[in-house]
Amino acid sequence: MIRPRGGDFLYSDQEVEVMRKDIELMKSYGADGLVLGALTEDGRVDAELCMELLAAARPLSVTFHRAFDMVHDPTVALESLVSLGFQRVLTSGCDSSALEGLPLIKRFIDQAKGRIIIMPGGGITERNLQRILEGSGAQEFHCSARSSKDSAMKFRNSCVTMGAAFSAPEYGLKVADVSKVRTLNAIARNTL
C-alpha cells in the first residue's frame, strides 16, 4: 500500500514525494501491484495526483483503496476511477464494514459493468464472507485474516502503556492466520 500516513487522504507536497519514492521502491522489489488513493479537500478523487501516481506505477496493476469510502459522491468517484485507469477499487460500500455497506457494494458492481473490479473489504470474516459474496456478486474480496498472538516478552512492565486507552496491548501481536486464510479461500471457492 502506498500511503504515507494514517488519517485523511489529502496529501501535502512532501507526502506526495514519499508516495512517489515508495512506488519506485515497490517496483524495484518486484511488487505485483499497488494500492493507493488520494482525495481533494472537497471529497472528490484527486484525478491530477492519481494520474501522476498511476503513471509512476506503470506497468503494475493499481487498486484505489478505501479512500473511496470517504468521497462526497461515490457514483461520480467510481466513474472517475474507471476513466483514470484503476484496475479495482477497495470499498466497504461507504459504511463501517462491507456487510453494512453490502447494498451499495452491489450497486457499485452493477454500475461498473466489468469496467473496474469492485473489491469488498472491511470487517470481512469467515462468518460473513459467503453472505457478502452472494449479496454483492463480487468476485474478489479483501480481509486481514488476523488473529492475536501473545508476545514472547518475559519481562512485562504493567505500569506503562504506549498509547491511548483503547490502543492494542503492548504484549500482544496481530498476525496473519494461515488457518483463517485457508478457510476464507475455501468459502470463496465454494461460493464463486
Automatic annotation (TrEMBL):
It is found in: Cytoplasm; Nucleus. It holds the Pfam family CutC. Keywords: Copper, Cytoplasm, Metal-binding, Nucleus. One of its GO terms (molecular function) is copper ion binding. Coiled coil: none annotated. GO terms for cellular component: cytoplasm; nucleus. The keyword Disulfide bond does not apply. The keyword Membrane does not apply. Gene3D superfamilies: Copper homeostasis (CutC) domain (3.20.20.380). Its main location: cytoplasm. Homotetramer. PANTHER family: COPPER HOMEOSTASIS PROTEIN CUTC, COPPER HOMEOSTASIS PROTEIN CUTC HOMOLOG. Belongs to the CutC family. May play a role in copper homeostasis. Can bind one Cu(1+) per subunit. This is Copper homeostasis protein cutC homolog. It comes from Scomber scombrus.
